[in-house]
């Protein structure tokens, strides 16, 4: 079975957060520097690239397999996020906070900011950090939290983090609805989706959030551009929770976001946020199970939805002494492309899952021609990522036998490279 996601582990863990040490001023950068106790330099053992050579032909060829330098206690890490220039990465840990390092470094990673009460935008699998366009800094947040519980002791504040670990405060974001409780950066120049007054249950004592609000903000300038009431639930017993989100910057430099939300006993509700327009519900119907992983196409006309196809049956823990029955295979839809306005299915990919698995958020190339999705693995075990054609959903190439903790896929800005990452492993492939 695939390992628990970093979000699930972070939500369950009640452990001590990393202590923030004293700070000193860096006169050359003009930022606030947090000094931390880092372990001594140790050489990171590297995997054998031959173990991960591609077994099927296609446009991709293996470029590099790299184990990056992260603390050994890496349980609960988000997948490493690669800088636009491909030389640096960050990973967020639900207990320890943010780690920053160079891909090729054996030095210990910097830990410039600690944990936040809840990293996801709503309850989606996201983190409130992103690389800046020039790869020299990370746009992010920090928050005072209780030790060891992790309950919030105040709102999030936005920061810019240099690769050396120094931290600069950005102008504050405020709204009458309440504290800044969530942030999702959109693009890499400072625009973001924000939550105000949405997560009062993560404070001690709890806060009464009477007007939960979503907003589009310019976090570099501390400006709320547009705000929206959280869509009300359908019926008194249901609560609206954001379970999935994907956002882009459109051709006019404005925020475009698609939200999947609960709040209706009959199934997932889909909402469109477009800067300058009112929030509106879409007609898409994907059934009762709320998708968490999807990606909007670059032309903003359709959405690629992953359905987390998995076998069923009894899950036996590794320490169980009882014989474990084999999983029951399940056949169904692996992923489909849907028209945003009508919900019409343009094409779909079907398959059979013979083992327990879960999907990962798909990635679409910037030219809109290709996508990367997780598909049910072959009999050899491990995970399988497929490069598919966005024109018809045809599988162009499979990357087999990846570690079961591979949890993120992405394209480089020029679409010449793809990245697969999870825990402390990075895989890069060149697109021919």
Q: What does the model show?
A:
The chain is mainly beta and 432 residues long. Helices cover 2% and strands 38% of the residues. It has 1 helix and 29 strands. The strands form 7 sheets. A 6-stranded antiparallel β-sheet has the order 1-2-10-9-8-7, with no helix packed on it. Strands 3-29-28-27 form a 4-stranded antiparallel β-sheet, with no helix packed on it. The chain has a 4-stranded antiparallel β-sheet with strand order 11-12-13-14, with no helix packed on it. A hairpin with a 5-residue loop joins strand 21 and strand 22 (345-353). The longest helix is centred in the first third of the chain and has 7 residues, at 6-12.
- Sheet/helix structural class: mainly beta
Low-confidence residue ranges: 1-37
* Helix fraction by DSSP (H/I, runs of at least 4): under 10%
Provide mean pLDDT, rounded.
Answer: 87
Number of helices: 1
Question: What about the largest sheet?
Answer: 6 strands, antiparallel
Query: Secondary-structure element sequence?
Result: HEEEEEEEEEEEEEEEEEEEEEEEEEEEEE
């Amino acid at each position: 079975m695939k390992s628990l996601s970093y979000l699930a582990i972070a939500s369950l863990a009640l452990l001590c957060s990393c202590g923030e040490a004293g700070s000193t001023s860096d006169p050359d950068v003009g930022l606030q520097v947090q000094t931390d106790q880092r372990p001594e330099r140790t050489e990171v053992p590297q995997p054998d690239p031959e173990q991960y050579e591609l077994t099927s032909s296609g446009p991709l060829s293996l470029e590099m397999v790299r184990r990056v330098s992260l603390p050994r206690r890496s349980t609960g890490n988000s997948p490493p996020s690669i800088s636009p220039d491909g030389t640096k990465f960050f990973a967020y840990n639900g207990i320890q906070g943010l780690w920053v390092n160079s891909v090729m470094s054996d030095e210990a990673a910097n830990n410039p900011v600690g944990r936040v009460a809840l990293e996801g935008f709503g309850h989606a699998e996201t983190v409130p950090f992103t690389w800046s366009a020039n790869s020299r800094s990370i746009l992010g947040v920090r928050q005072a939290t209780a030790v060891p519980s992790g309950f919030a002791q105040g709102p999030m504040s936005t920061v810019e983090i240099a690769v050396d670990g120094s931290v600069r405060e950005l102008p504050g974001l405020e709204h009458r609805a309440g504290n800044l409780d969530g942030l999702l950066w959109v693009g890499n120049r400072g625009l973001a989706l924000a939550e105000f007054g949405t997560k009062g249950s993560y404070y001690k004592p709890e806060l009464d959030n009477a007007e939960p609000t979503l907003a589009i903000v310019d976090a570099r300038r501390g400006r709320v551009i547009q705000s929206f009431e959280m869509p009300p639930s359908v019926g008194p017993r249901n609560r609206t929770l954001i379970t999935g989100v994907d956002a882009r910057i459109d051709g006019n430099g404005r925020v475009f976001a698609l939200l999947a939300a609960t709040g209706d006993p009959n199934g997932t509700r889909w909402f469109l946020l477009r800067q300058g327009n009112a929030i509106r519900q879409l007609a898409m119907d994907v059934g009762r199970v709320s998708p968490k992983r999807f990606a909007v196409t670059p032309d903003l006309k359709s959405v690629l939805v992953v359905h987390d196809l998995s076998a069923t049956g009894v899950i036996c823990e590794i320490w169980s002494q009882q014989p474990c029955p084999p999983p029951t295979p399940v056949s169904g839809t692996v992923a489909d492309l849907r028209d945003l306005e009508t919900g019409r299915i343009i094409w779909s990919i079907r398959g059979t899952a013979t083992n327990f698995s879960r999907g990962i958020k798909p990635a679409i190339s910037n030219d809109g021609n290709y996508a990367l999705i997780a598909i049910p693995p072959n009999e050899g075990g491990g995970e399988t990522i497929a490069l598919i054609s966005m024109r018809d959903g045809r599988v162009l190439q499979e990357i087999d036998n990846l570690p079961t903790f591979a949890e993120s896929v992405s394209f480089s800005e020029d679409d010449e490279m793809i990245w697969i990452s999870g825990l402390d492993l990075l895989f890069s492939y060149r697109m021919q």
